[in-house]
């Protein structure tokens, strides 16, 4: 049986699965381990490989403030985005829309990451 860490009431986090795509041909790239190895330790600990090795998952720390969680996600996803770019791969996020611009949080995300999650795949670089 899975055990969970005890946390304060009303806390939350975020998990995002990103597909790794080769820029050259647009095919899935099983390069998760290579990307993770290039990340600084502080960022690496928030990413997990997926079984296909062509997907990497961001797992935030536990938060009680949504703005803090947003800042954490932007910081570490930006590092991953730059690392992917230098490695010749793109990151694609399949997700559903959580809100629509121009809310302040959505605008902050768009300015930092370059796109806002929508119902279709989005390139993060």
List the defining traits of the structure above:
5 strands; 125 residues; 18% strand; alpha+beta
Number of strands: 5
- The residue ranges in which pLDDT falls below 50 over 5 or more consecutive positions are 96-101, 116-125
Shape category: globular
Structural classification = alpha+beta
The radius of gyration over CA amounts to 15 Å
Biggest sheet strand order reads 2-3-1-4-5
Q: End-to-end span in angstroms? A: 39 Å
Overall pLDDT confidence: 79
User: What is the share of helical residues?
Assistant: 25-40%
Count of alpha and pi helical runs: 4
Strand content: 15-25%
List the helices and strands in order: EHHEEHEHE
How many domains make up the coordinates? Answer: 1
Outline the biggest β-sheet: 5 strands, antiparallel
Explain how this protein is built:
With 125 residues, the protein is of the alpha+beta class. It has one domain (15-123). Helices cover 34% and strands 18% of the residues. Strand 2 and strand 3 form a beta hairpin. Helix 3 (66-86) packs parallel to helix 4.
């Amino acid at each position: 049986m899975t055990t969970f860490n005890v946390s304060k009431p009303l806390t939350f986090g975020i998990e995002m699965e990103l597909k790794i795509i080769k820029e050259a041909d647009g095919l899935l790239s099983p390069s998760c381990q290579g990307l993770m190895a290039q990340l600084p330790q502080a960022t690496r600990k928030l990413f997990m490989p997926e079984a296909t090795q062509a997907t990497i998952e961001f797992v935030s720390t536990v938060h009680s403030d949504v703005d803090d969680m947003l800042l954490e996600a932007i910081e570490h996803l930006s590092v991953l985005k730059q690392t992917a770019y230098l490695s010749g791969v793109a990151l694609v996020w399949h997700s559903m829309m959580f809100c629509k611009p121009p809310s302040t949080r959505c605008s902050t995300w768009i300015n930092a990451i370059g796109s806002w999650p929508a119902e279709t795949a989005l390139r993060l670089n």
